[in-house]
Amino acid sequence: MAHAKTSYVCLPCRASYKQPHDSWRERFCPRCARPLFHAGSAFAAPRRRDTAAWRTLSVLLNAGIGFHKTCCGGPGWRPRTVREVRERLAYARATGEPADRVLTRPELP
Questions:
Q1: Bridge partners, residue 6, by sequence
Q2: How many CB atoms are closer than 10 A to CB 16?
Q3: What does DSSP assign to residue 1?
Q4: Which conformational region is residue 40 in: left (phi greater than 0), alpha (psi within -120 to 50 degrees), or beta?
């Protein structure tokens, strides 16, 4: 039986690769040889020329937020625009709440 594939992302190259997941093995980009981020099996890559979407994705992946499936469906809500990311990070700085928790919240209080 083949292993399920999951997405790995290279932010500088704006590329996504589907590969079998091994938690012990580090993956490297075939273009630039930098380490790849494990994005998860529910990840859908934006178009390479969509710089705003890649900026948003870079904030999410650097904060440790992935796109992993849960038992009840997809990964949950994620910000899609740079504006949503800015609003949530400003809220996190003002309240002291962790950024990874604020970035996955659909509504701010």
A1: 19
A2: 18
A3: -
A4: left
Structure tokens at 82: 């740079």
- For residue 32, the tally of other CB atoms under 10 A from its CB is 10
DSSP string, 28-64: B-TTT-PBPEEEETT--PPPTT-HHHHHHHHHHHHTT
Count Cβ atoms within 10 A of the Cβ of residue 94 and give its class: 0-12 exposed, 13-18 middle, 19 or more buried: exposed
**How far apart are alpha carbons 109 and 105 in whole angstroms?**
10
Maximum Cα–Cα distance across the chain: 49
Residues 24 and 31: their CA atoms lie apart, in Å, by 22
Taking only the tens place, the pLDDT of each residue in 13-58 is 999 999 998 878 899 999 999 999 999 988 999 999 999 999 999 9
Structure pTM? 0.83
